[in-house]
Design brief:
With 139 residues, this protein is an alpha/beta fold. It has helices spanning 8-12, 23-39, 85-98, 114-126, and strands at 51-52, 67-72, 75-78, 81-83, 104-108, 132-134. Strands 1-6-5-2-3-4 form a six-stranded mixed beta sheet, covered by helices on one side.
Length: 139
C-alpha cells in the first residue's frame, strides 16, 4: 500500500532536486550566434560630408562663382545645361582643377528620391569634389 501524499512517511523522505542542464541552452545560443553572423550584412558604409548653406538671400563670399548642380526627375543639369553623370563629373573636375576654391551647390528639384541625391553626391565625392553644399528650394 502506498502512503497518502500528506502522510508523515512521504513528508520525511529526502526530495531529489531536478538538475537543469545548460548544454541545450548553450547550443541554442551558439546556433543563434552563427545565424546572426551569417545573416548580417558587412556593407562598407561611407559618408559624404556636407556643409549647410547659410540661410538668407545674400550671397556669402564662398558662394560667389559656385557651380549649381540640379538633380531633377529628367536628369542632371549644371548651371542650367543638361548633362549626363560622366560629363557632369568631368566638367566639374576640370573647373575645380583651374579654381580649387570653387564650391559645388547640389539642389534636388521636383520629385527626386533621396537615393538619387545620395548617388550623385557619392559620385561627386568619389571624383574628389569635397566642397559640396546641399541646398533646398526645389521648384
Amino acid at each position: 500500500m502506498t502512503p497518502h501524499p500528506g502522510s508523515p512517511t512521504r513528508r520525511n523522505s529526502p526530495r531529489r532536486r531536478a538538475r537543469v542542464s545548460l548544454t541545450p541552452l548553450i547550443d541554442v545560443v551558439f546556433i543563434l550566434l552563427v545565424f546572426f553572423m551569417l545573416a548580417s550584412s558587412f556593407a562598407d558604409w561611407r559618408s559624404v560630408r556636407l556643409t549647410s548653406a547659410e540661410a538668407g538671400g545674400a550671397a556669402t563670399p564662398g558662394m560667389i562663382g559656385a557651380m549649381l548642380v540640379e538633380i531633377g526627375p529628367e536628369g542632371l543639369r549644371l548651371s542650367g545645361e543638361a548633362l549626363d553623370a560622366e560629363r557632369l563629373v568631368a566638367r566639374l573636375a576640370a573647373r575645380l582643377d583651374a579654381r580649387p576654391e570653387t564650391r559645388v551647390l547640389v539642389r534636388p528639384t521636383g520629385d527626386v528620391g533621396m537615393q538619387r541625391v545620395v548617388d550623385v553626391l557619392d559620385r561627386l565625392a568619389a571624383a574628389g569634389i569635397t566642397r559640396l553644399d546641399l541646398t533646398g528650394g526645389g521648384r
